[in-house]
Write a structure and sequence with these properties.
single chain, 257 residues, alpha/beta, eight-stranded parallel beta sheet, 11 helices, 14% strand
């Protein structure tokens, strides 16, 4: 069994309204989630402050779905690291495929956000992954390696301890498709190999790598049983207490097996 503590993140994306968000947080707080798994929830920006208050004392960590890399200034619509820290945010997502491919974020921007968050004392879930045409061209490992190298450029080995990598095959997000367990493990093992080249084997072995492609209660245990898969970054299933709890418990079952 790996000594890495599993981590399961819930990315709510642009979903739920205030009452629903409050009810979901309350349900998770009362769900008796296992403490052998690190749990992070990422509501939409308007609900972060309220969520921070609800989560006090629960052991559940609070994450933001995005952040800007400048400290302050004339950047209409953006939110800084210090603003997030002010309201109790501990984690941020960077490089999510929807930010890259829908919003148009570049590798340079992803790196700037990652470094700014780490410099501010936040922890980061750095997302990487290939699109369907890249997968069909057998470019999965090359795409992941490039996004890792860009995303972690300038990140010290010391700061790396506050980074989690989320592998999200873009073709599997929200489509109901899932990479086979074998394909997911192969991609994760390759990512760990890239980390060993960028840093060293010890740093690579310590890195937690989440799977982020349509992970559900029905497939979570099999995915998490793989030696290089250390939890999941969950989308749709994170919006239901029962489903999210089942995924977290699957991670806990692997951790204690």
């Amino acid at each position: 069994m790996s000594e890495r503590k599993p981590i399961v993140g819930g990315n709510w994306k642009m979903n739920l309204h205030a009452a629903d968000a409050e009810a979901l947080i309350a349900g998770l707080a009362d769900a008796g989630l296992p403490d052998s798994v690190e749990t992070v929830v990422c509501p939409a920006f308007p609900y972060l402050a309220a969520a921070a208050k609800q989560l006090e004392g629960t052991g559940i960590m609070l994450g933001a779905q995005d952040v800007y890399y400048e400290a302050n200034g004339a950047f209409t619509g953006e939110v800084s690291c210090s603003m997030l820290k002010d309201i109790g945010v501990q984690w941020v997502l960077t490089g999510h495929s929807e930010r890259r491919h829908v919003i148009g974020e570049t590798d340079v921007m992803v790196n700037a956000k990652t470094r700014a968050a780490l410099d501010a004392g936040l922890s980061v879930i750095l997302c990487i992954g290939e699109k369907i045409e890249q997968r069909e061209a057998n470019q999965t490992d090359a795409i992941n390696a490039g996004q890792l190298a860009y995303g972690l450029a300038g990140v010290s080995a010391e700061d790396l301890s506050r980074v989690v990598i989320a592998y999200e095959p873009v073709w599997a997000i929200g489509t109901g498709k899932t990479a086979s367990t074998e394909d997911a493990e192969k991609a994760h093992a390759a990512i760990r190999g890239v980390l060993a080249n960028l840093y060293d084997q010890s740093a690579a072995d310590a890195m937690r790598i989440q799977y982020g492609g349509s992970c559900k209660p029905g497939n979570a245990a099999e995915l998490f049983s793989q030696p290089d898969i250390d939890g999941g970054l969950i989308g749709g299933a994170a919006l239901k207490v029962a489903d999210f709890k089942a995924i977290i418990e699957a991670a806990a079952g692997v951790a204690t097996a």
